[in-house]
Automatic annotation (TrEMBL):
Keywords: Signal. Gene3D superfamilies: 2.60.120.200. This is T9SS type A sorting domain-containing protein. Residues 1-19 form the signal peptide.
Length: 267
């Protein structure tokens, strides 16, 4: 009887360990703090190597604050990436996005980027496929809100790639969410977030922006997650006349380092 019960428990544990999740909402507060904290709670890390014969090596750290976060620290490695890998997800269908906050940590505030991607093997980052462009994290003292639509993919792990430009760079992320992007109805052509509003103009040739936020860059993605337009607004207008009829995601980067995500319908 005991052997049967033990076997059943092992089978259940194996099934649970391999279960794929549909969404993620993780603030890391229940993680164990420290420099050797991975893997845990389904999350893992692949670190760059230490190019020096002495410490410190690159690390993926769970902070000790009451509001815990994940900190990627480059150590002696000035140029190679490290990766934070999510629990296994159901293969993306193109209807969800990843969002999280990021900030450089003092005194290690040199230029660095983060890039979202998907991978098919959590231990092999040659399977990493980038989604969107690298995002520069340079706003010292400011938390950047990052949001990236995830296209349909056969990859079953979400990945944040950290790339330093100097040794001893530290980037901290928190509040990782992977979930369905809020949809827009036809009557919801105007969206308001972070003091930015926009609407498709009457002849469906441009996005027209209003509000107090200053815009640095605009990226437009198709419903499948492919980038189809990118650039800057001119006179508060961003041309979309080359786009086909359909629903699009828009990612707006403001001059104060915030990222604002929304949708629009091109008729």
């Amino acid at each position: 009887m005991n052997l049967k019960l033990l076997f059943a428990g092992l089978v259940f544990s194996a099934i649970s360990a391999n279960a794929q999740v549909a969404t993620i909402n993780e603030n890391f507060d229940n993680f164990t703090s420290g420099t050797t904290s991975f893997p845990q709670n389904g999350w893992s890390a692949v670190l760059a190597t230490n190019p020096q014969p002495f410490p410190p090596p690159p690390r993926m750290i769970v902070t000790t604050d009451a509001n815990k976060a994940i900190q990627a620290y480059s150590g002696n490695n000035a140029s190679d990436p490290s990766y934070l890998i999510s629990p296994q997800i159901i293969a993306p269908a193109g209807d969800k996005s990843v969002s999280f906050t990021a900030t450089p940590m003092t005194p290690y505030t040199s230029l660095a980027t983060v890039q979202v991607g998907v991978a098919s093997n959590p231990a092999d980052m040659t399977t990493f496929v980038a989604v969107g462009s690298p995002i520069t994290i340079t706003a010292v003292g400011t938390i950047q809100n990052i949001s990236v639509p995830i296209p349909a993919s056969t990859g079953s792990y979400l990945v944040i790639k950290f790339l330093p430009t100097t040794a001893h760079t530290a980037i901290q992320i928190d509040d990782f969410v992977y979930n369905t992007t809020a949809s827009l109805g036809t009557s919801d052509a105007v969206r308001s977030k972070e003091d930015i509003q926009f609407a498709v103009n009457s002849d469906n040739t441009a996005l027209q922006f209003v509000g107090k936020g200053e815009i640095k860059n605009i990226d437009v993605y198709s419903a499948s997650g492919q980038k189809v337009a990118s650039g800057k607004a001119s006179n508060n207008l961003f041309e979309i006349n080359t786009l086909q009829t359909g629903v699009y995601y828009v990612l707006i980067e403001t001059k104060d380092g915030k990222a604002v995500k929304s949708k629009f319908i091109k008729k």
